[in-house]
Design goal:
Shape: globular
Protein name: Glucose-6-phosphate 1-dehydrogenase
Structural class: alpha/beta
Bound molecules: NADP nicotinamide-adenine-dinucleotide phosphate
Helix content: 25-40%
GO molecular function: glucose-6-phosphate dehydrogenase activity; NADP binding
EC number: 1.1.1.49
Order of helices and strands: EHEHHHEHEHEHEHEHHEHEEEEEEHHHEH
Largest sheet: 9 strands, mixed
Radius of gyration: 24 Å
CATH class of the largest domain: Alpha Beta
Enzyme class: oxidoreductase
Number of helices: 15
Number of strands: 15
Pfam families: G6PD_C (PF02781), G6PD_N (PF00479)
Low-confidence stretches: none
CATH topology of the largest domain: Dihydrodipicolinate Reductase, domain 2
């Protein structure tokens, strides 16, 4: 099955922070892959902007090197690579200064879609928005793309929303959460709302509980200062896991349009109960074969920042009353894996007797690695003799199901950057969603600070602190393996 490529309108995309890690490793390779897929119109260009005094040619060389590393298959096509590089330009520019904006303006066309990607530190987001407006670079077809983190707490997120709103309408602001660009996340909506099979069962009557795991095997890698101020709660839970929770728990929107979807997600966040302190486990990784312990890594021997958090959340509404949502995320865990497990209830009565054991259906939605969906169903173990039951997976790995050209599903950034150009905000967070997520997160963090909470140590390369297992065990449940 070949996916259809619909070309976008002509565009100018300015990447502030074009020389940085995110731009070089994710954004530019994503744009190149879309270029190779034929999604670019003839009239489209990318302009990198950062303080480094590159000439356009020197910047192109940097980009070429990154593409060879991060889009190796496509960059082997020398013609494609050279044609793409001709569409790449560069302007040295300091976001904190008023010089050089006229040079940037001179490179932009009046009538094209104009997107400004803020791939710089969050302290520059407000300044950039102000300067784009002040230097008259905003047109009716202008969009701004704002990276994470969007604020540090509710107050700072509100302040940033207010600054952006002073210069741009909500319809022009694209707050990125790259989890929403993952193919499986969108498939979650297709599975839920495109099939009759699941929706009647998608509630507390049939679902025992839901587990959302975002496990990383890496540590903090060059982000020590930021991470020690943020921790897993701010860095992952408030945004990525919250967004996944919303997509699992939300009511069917009337249509698949940006505000209808985001209205339903917002209702979920607003229906979240405050989390009881004994329903949260915080952890900090110890030293292990893959490196130093957390405190040595961040160079802060007294740090009480968590590199792991697990919690039990409740969505207090008609559909989910009584169904817990267990969420966990951490660094330096045994595997890199993001998976949502919808754990259905046992059949109300087993006609096969106690010896047949307990069997419940599990719908696993794997975001990474090996994106796909698995449904565990109970069948009879083959062979003569008694009626022995066994759980087997009905596996829908997208690569297998959809053919070889889907072996490598598009990176989330490919989808999201093209959505910006198309003007489709469905997979981007709205300002009120971000604020509601912080309003839920802030009291949890304030509670830790008030109690002087210290995270529990856990072994690097493990599944996290033992208390996270207890969180489940107390409820008579257990985590599914990190990599099912
Ligand atoms: P980075 O590697 O430190 O790059 C920062 C970029 O900003 C560089 O190009 C830098 O170039 C430029 N810059 C810094 N100060 C500037 C100024 N005053 N004016 C203009 N440009 C300036 O950071 P990054 O990892 O790419 O992250 C960028 C943003 O994406 C951050 O908000 C981060 O939180 C977010 N993010 C990153 C990742 C990731 O995987 N890297 C993932 C999710 C979100 P010059 O020094 O030459 O100016």
């Amino acid at each position: 099955m070949v996916s259809r490529v619909i070309p976008v309108d002509p565009f100018d995309l300015v990447i502030f922070g074009g020389t940085g890690d995110l731009a070089q490793r994710k954004i530019l390779p994503a744009l190149f892959r879309r270029f190779c897929a034929g999604q670019w119109p003839d009239d489209a260009q990318i302009i990198g902007a950062a303080r480094a005094e590159y000439t356009p040619d020197a910047f192109r060389e940097v980009v070429a090197e990154s593409l060879r590393s991060h889009a190796p298959a496509q960059s082997r096509n020398a013609d494609a690579l050279n044609t793409f590089l001709q569409r790449v330009d560069y302007v040295p520019l300091d976001a904190l200064s008023d010089t050089a904006w006229d040079r940037l303006a001179a490179k932009l066309a009046d009538d094209r879609v104009r997107a400004f990607y803020f791939s710089v530190g969050p302290q520059l987001f407000g300044q950039l928005a102000e300067r784009i407006k002040h230097h008259d670079l905003a047109t009716p077809k202008t969009r701004i793309v704002v990276e994470k983190p969007f604020g540090h707490d509710l107050e700072s997120a509100r302040a940033l929303n207010a600054t952006l709103a002073a210069h741009f309408s909500e319809g022009q602001i694209y707050r990125i959460d790259h989890y929403l660009g993952k193919e499986t996340v969108q498939n979650l909506m297709a599975v839920r709302f495109g099939n009759m099979l699941f929706e009647p069962l998608w509630n507390s009557q049939y679902v025992d509980h839901i587990q959302i795991t975002v496990a990383e095997s890496v540590g903090i890698d060059g982000r020590e200062e930021y991470y020690d101020r943020a921790g897993a709660m701010r860095d992952m839970m408030q945004n990525h896991l919250m967004q996944l929770l919303c997509l699992i728990a939300m009511e069917p929107p009337a249509k698949f349009d940006p505000d209808a979807v985001r209205d339903e997600k917002l209702k979920v966040i607003r229906a979240l109960d405050p989390v009881e302190p004994h329903h949260i486990v915080r952890g900090q990784f110890d030293a292990g074969p893959s490196g130093a312990g957390y405190r040595d890594t961040v160079g802060n021997p007294r740090s009480t920042t968590e590199s792991y958090v697990a919690l039990r959340a409740h969505v207090s509404n008609w559909r989910w009353a009584g169904t817990p949502f267990y969420l966990r995320t951490g660094k330096r865990l045994i595997e890199r894996s993001s998976v949502i497990n919808v754990m259905f209830k046992d059949a109300p009565h087993s006609i096969f007797g106690a010896d047949a054991g307990r069997h419940a259906n599990v719908l696993s939605i794997r975001l990474q690695p090996n994106e796909g969906i698995t449904l565990k169903v109970t069948i009879k173990e083959p062979g003569p003799g008694g009626m022995r039951l066994v759980d087997v997976p009905l596996d829908m790995s997208f690569a297998e199901a959809l053919g070889s050209e889907n072996q490598d599903p598009p990176d989330a950034y490919e989808r999201l950057v093209m959505d910006v150009i198309r003007g489709n905000q469905t997979l981007f967070m709205r300002g009120d969603e971000v604020e509601a997520a912080w309003a839920w997160t802030d009291p949890i963090i304030a509670g830790w600070q008030a109690r002087g909470d210290v995270p529990k140590p856990y072994d690097s390369g493990s599944t996290g602190p033992g208390d996270a297992e207890l969180l489940m065990k107390r409820d008579g449940r257990r985590w599914q393996g990190i990599n099912p």
